[in-house]
Specification:
Keywords: Membrane, Transmembrane, Transmembrane helix. By secondary structure, the chain is an alpha/beta fold. Among the domains are: 131 residues, Diaminopimelate Epimerase, Chain A, domain 1, CATH 3.10.310.50; 36 residues. Helices cover 49% and strands 10% of the residues. Strands 1-2-6-5-4-3 form a six-stranded mixed β-sheet, with helices on both faces. Helix 1 packs antiparallel against helix 2, helix 2 packs antiparallel against helix 7 and helix 3 runs parallel beside helix 6. It is rod-shaped.
């Protein structure tokens, strides 16, 4: 049975409090899968995940060499260093901001899960997963990084579940009846009445999971679901593997924000200015010492005339007195 596709989507999450499990739902989209497409065609990729690469910077390098070759002072060197630094940081910022659609701003700690990883963490009523054992093995990376047991439930169409809230409640009840711990992140996919349509998706957090899978982390998870589910080149195993791996990698490492970059720039610029100032002072001192030494040599090489001899004689006699 084909896994349907879409070209857009959004998400909705519902919260909870510490004494209950947190859950919510998500719609990837409603577009039909094109007729005659392959079994795993999930529609065209979402365009808002494609970005224009930063412009080439080939012209800059020639300019940098000109600055260095034409500059003979410490101040020129400092200016050249600042130009180099500014261009490098700007380029880094452009590249970093190119992937700013998936960022984490929270430092999270891996939870201490007393239960070992359970390979029996996939329930597929739709036959979407090509290799269940392979996917189960791949999902262990999510457990290793977050301490959270992942569970995927692909549910066949149920005509009694007619609203999103009913499906959210079903996921909550299914967790209660089938999962005996509070360290699991449950993902449920509900098949749509039209198999060519993408069904509704829901999640449920165990009570011990929310410290890692908070609202921001869940939004990141949905973001990756949107990205990979609509990639026709990926199999179902690859979709879930990449989604859970990418989520774990992102949420467990705080992303660099524009404020962080600005702070780094200020610190490094300050260091460069201090070092440049020291270099400038040393160069000026070296220049003065060199000029003084040159002047001394010229004086010593100059022949003494009679007036100098009389002056020296006078000074010597005055000194004897």
């Amino acid at each position: 049975m084909p896994r349907p596709g879409t070209s857009g989507g959004g998400h909705r999450s519902s919260g909870g409090h510490s004494s209950s499990r947190v859950g919510g739902g998500h719609h990837v989209g409603r577009s039909s899968r094109p007729t005659g497409s392959s079994s795993f065609n999930r529609g065209p990729s979402m365009h808002h995940y494609h970005h224009t690469p930063p412009p080439p910077r080939r012209g800059y390098y020639g300019y940098r060499r000109n600055v260095y070759t034409s500059s003979s002072s410490g101040l020129g060197t400092l200016i050249a260093c600042l130009i180099v630094f500014a261009v490098v940081i700007f380029s880094f910022f452009m590249i970093a901001s190119d992937d700013s659609d998936v960022t984490s701003t929270i430092n999270r700690e891996k939870i201490e899960n007393p239960i070992p990883y359970d390979n029996n963490c996939i329930k597929d009523e739709l036959g979407y997963v090509e290799n269940t054992s392979k996917l189960s093995k791949n999902l262990k990376n999510f457990y290793n990084k977050t301490g959270i047991q992942p569970y995927i439930y692909l549910k066949s169409y149920d005509e009694t579940l007619t609203s999103d809230s009913q499906k959210d409640n079903y996921a909550q009840n299914w967790y209660e009846q089938n999962i005996d711990n509070e360290d699991t992140f449950l993902f449920v996919y509900y098949e749509d009445q039209d198999p060519n349509e993408i069904g509704y998706m829901a999640y449920v957090n165990g009570k011990q999971v929310t410290s890692v899978m908070d609202s921001e982390a869940v939004n990141i998870f949905w973001n990756y679901i949107d990205r990979y589910w609509t990639d026709d080149s990926l199999s179902t195993v690859e979709v879930f593997t990449k989604t859970f791996n990418s989520t774990a990698n992102t949420i467990m490492e705080k992303s660099t924000t524009s404020n962080d970059i600005i702070k780094i720039i200020c610190i490094i610029v300050g260091i460069i200015i201090v070092i440049g100032g020291i270099i400038y002072i040393l160069r000026m001192k070296f220049k003065r010492d060199k000029e003084k030494a040159k002047e001394t040599v010229e004086i010593l090489k100059t022949p003494l005339d009679k007036s100098d001899e009389l002056r020296d004689k006078y000074l010597n006699e005055e000194g004897k007195d």
